[in-house]
């Protein structure tokens, strides 16, 4: 399984009819993360530009610039980065 990560505001909560209630999250960040997840290879973690920028400075992860990916609902391809774990964080 691959993982897609994108930061942003979301609406979360239980939605649906009483007999078909489901807990969900909605919003543009959820859409980008889900689409990146679908494009990620098994074991791969893909991030969008905003998450890459917010993650700079982590000492146990490096980032590989990937080719921009066309995503449904977006006019331009979305720049992506793969997170690569270097070593376990200090305990």
Automatic annotation (TrEMBL):
Gene3D superfamilies membership: Nucleotide cyclase
Keywords: ATP-binding, Nucleotide-binding
Record has ATP-binding as a keyword: yes
An example molecular function term from Gene Ontology annotations: ATP binding
GO biological process, one term: intracellular signal transduction
A GO term from the CC aspect: cytoplasm
Pfam families: Guanylate_cyc
Database matches in CDD domains: CHD
InterPro entries: A/G_cyclase, Nucleotide_cyclase
SUPFAM superfamilies tied to this protein: Nucleotide cyclase
Segments forming domain Guanylate cyclase: 1-37
Protein name in UniProt: Guanylate cyclase domain-containing protein
Lineage: Bacteria, Pseudomonadati, Pseudomonadota, Alphaproteobacteria, Rhodobacterales
């Amino acid at each position: 399984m691959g993982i897609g990560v994108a930061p942003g505001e979301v609406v979360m909560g239980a939605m649906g009819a009483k007999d078909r209630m489901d807990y969900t999250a909605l919003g543009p960040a959820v859409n980008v993360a889900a689409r990146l997840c679908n494009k990620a290879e098994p074991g791969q973690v893909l991030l969008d530009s905003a998450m890459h920028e917010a993650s700079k400075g982590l000492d146990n992860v490096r980032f590989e610039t990937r080719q921009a990916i066309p995503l449904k609902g977006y006019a331009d391809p979305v720049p992506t980065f793969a997170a690569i774990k270097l070593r376990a964080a200090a305990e």
